[in-house]
Amino acid sequence: MNVVAIGGGTGLSTLLRGIKREVGETIRELTAIVTVADSGGSTGRLRKIYNIPAPGDIRNCIVALSDSEEIMQDLFQYRFKGDGLEGHAFGNLFLTALSEVTGNFLEAVKLTSQILRTKGEIVPSTVESVHIVARFSDGETVEGEEDITEYGKKGDVRIEDIWIEPKTARAPIEAIAAIETADLIIFGPGSLFTSIIPNLLIKEIREATNRSKAHKLYVVNAMTQPGETDRMTAFDHMRTLMKFGGLKEINSVVVNTKMPPSDVLNKYLSEGQEPVTPDVGMIARQGVSVYSDDLIGEQDSFVRHDPERLTDMIMKIMRNEILSGV
C-alpha cells in the first residue's frame, strides 16, 4: 500500500506520529505533502528574511516521522530564549541554514529527513514562497494564514473565496508522483482553510489528486476553529473541503464521536470552539462511507486525535475499502 497524507499543522503531525508504525508492514511507502504557507511566529520571521517556504509544519512532520533518538527530536523542537533568537525553533533555523547552503529548500528537507531517519518522505506542496489570500463575506481581502484566522474571529463573516499568491506556484515532481501512485490519500486532520486546502490550491496537486484512482479519505477535526469553521458540522467540513479544494470526490470520512470532559469542554467553549457535530447521516446520503468512533486522546487539557486510535481506524478503512477488493 502506498499512502499519501496531505495537510499541515499539528493535525498532520499527529496523524504521522501514529501511522508511521505501519511503514514496512501494511504501508509500503508513506509520503506527507505539507503546506508551506504558514506566516506566523518563527516561520513567518524567517520567511520575510530569507524568502523561503515556511519551514515550521515541515519541521513538525519530520520530527513526527523520525525514528532517531529522542534527544534529536527534542533538539529540532527546541525554542530559543532571549533577545535575537527568541521564539525560533532550532529545526526552523536548521532547515533555513541548510536551504541557504544547498540553495534548494527541497534538498534541505531531504537531508534533514535523513538526519532524523524518517519513516516516510516529507515533501512541501511547493518550494516557492507562497501566501494564502482570502476574501470574506464583507468584501474584505486578507493575506496570510495568521491574519486570515484572526480576521475571521472579529465578527460574523465567513470566507467566500481563497487562493494562493503567486497563483502560478508549481508543485515538486515528487509530490505529483506520490499522488499518482497512491492507493490511499488522507486529508486532515488540521485547520481546514489554512492547513489542508492550501495544498489543493496548487493546480498541479489538485489535478493530480482528481486524476488519482486512490481511495480518498478525510479526517474531520474534533473541534471547530474560531475564524475558520465556526458552527460547521462534519458534513459542512467535507462539503467545504470539496468546494474550495476543487475535489471531485471523497470516498470515506472519519468523524470523532467522543465528547471532551466537561472542564476541558468549558475551556474550549470560552474560546469560541465547540465539538464538531457528527451529522453522519448527511454525509452517508452523499454516497460517502462514514467511520465514527471515540478518537480523541486523554492528554492534558487539549482535544486532539489520539495517534494510535486514529491509526487503528485508518487500518480498518484500508481493510474494508481497499484490501477487501484486491
Describe the fold and architecture:
- By secondary structure, the chain is of the alpha/beta class.
- It has one domain (2-325): CofD-like domains (Rossmann fold, 3-Layer(aba) Sandwich), CATH 3.40.50.
- Helix content is 43%, strand content 16%.
- Strand 8, helix 11 and strand 9 (252-256) form a beta-alpha-beta unit.
- The mean pLDDT is 93.
List key phrases describing it.
single chain; 326 residues; alpha/beta; Rossmann fold; seven-stranded parallel β-sheet; three-stranded antiparallel β-sheet; 10 strands; 16% strand
**CATH fold group:** Rossmann fold
What proportion of the residues is helical, as a percent range? 40-55%
Rg, alpha carbons: 19 Å
Mean pLDDT: 93
Largest sheet: 7 strands, parallel
**CATH architecture classification:** 3-Layer(aba) Sandwich
Structural domain tally = 1
Strand content: 15-25%
Which geometry do the CA atoms define? globular
Poorly predicted tracts of residues: none
N→C terminal distance: 11 Å
What is the C-level CATH assignment?
Alpha Beta
Strand order of the largest sheet: 3-2-1-7-8-9-10
The helix-strand sequence is: EHEHHHHHEEEHEHEHHEHEHHEH
Give a count of the beta strands, DSSP E runs of length 2 or more.
Answer: 10
Q: Which structural class fits the helix and strand makeup?
A: alpha/beta
Helix count equals 14
The CATH superfamily is CofD-like domains
